[in-house]
Amino acid sequence: MRVWRLAALAAAGLGMAGAAMAQGNVIAERKDGMREMGRHLEAINGILQSRGNQAQIATAADRIIAFYSNINALYPASSLTPPVPQGRSDGQTRALAAIEPNRAAFTEYSSDMVRQLTAMKTAAATGGVTPEMLRAAGQVCAGCHNQFRAR
Ligand code: HEC
Q: Distance from the CA of 129 to the center of ligand 1, in angstroms?
């Protein structure tokens, strides 16, 4: 499962995602952020494949941890589909309305991601990150997408 291979575009930095932010911006920001997360996993994968210096993993892990620690701010109920039209174009979304009544489960996927990346960061300090750890993180991405993202 290589969801992160979708990553291609240069994403904008993830500023503060406040509830006050316009809804269209929240949607654009979370899509950019998700693509950025894909690139970070891709970078970690590259380091592991090339048996590179795992110290570099810490930076990517920090970005991923920061993004998923704050995930609910990027998914207010008013920004889900419906009421927002479903699709991949600007202003559309694939984030399902099911997120709102299942907020605890949605948050748990994010918390799981944070836990796994925190463990990965710790392991990186001694060169102990394994491909299995990366695969397990990728499965959290896929689990949340299966439940909460339209195809
Ligand atoms: C807590 C749930 C959750 C987790 C965990 C999660 N995602 Fe997502 N992801 C979503 C939702 C919901 C969308 C749909 C966003 C939208 O269309 O507004 C999405 C969309 C995406 C997209 C498409 C962005 C676009 O341009 O439309 C990519 C790429 C992506 N995620 C990658 C990842 C990767 C890589 C991971 C793991 C590091 C991950 N996601 C983890 C919920 C999650």
A: 23
Q: Is residue 93 part of a domain?
A: yes
Q: In terms of pTM, does the model score above 0.85?
A: yes
* Neighbouring residues of 78: CB distance < 8 A, sequence distance ≥ 6: 23, 84
Across the 151 residues of the chain, what is the mean pLDDT of every consecutive 10-residue run? 37 36 81 97 97 96 97 97 95 97 98 98 97 97 98 93
**Residue 67: CB within 6 Å of ligand 1?**
no
CB of residue 115 inside a 6 A radius of ligand 1: no
In degrees, rounded to 5, the angle at the alpha carbon of residue 93 between the alpha carbons of residues 133 and 26 is: 80
The one-letter code for the residue type at 143 is G
Residue 69 belongs to domain with CATH number: 1.20.120.10
